[in-house]
Amino acid sequence: MTSSGIQALKGTWDYVDSENIDEFMKELGVGWAMRMAAKGVKPRLIISENNGKWNIKSESTFKNISYDFTPGVEFNETTPDGREVTVGTILLIISTVLTFEKNSFLDNYQF
Question: How far apart are CA 34 and CA 82, in angstroms?
Answer without folding.
Answer: 11
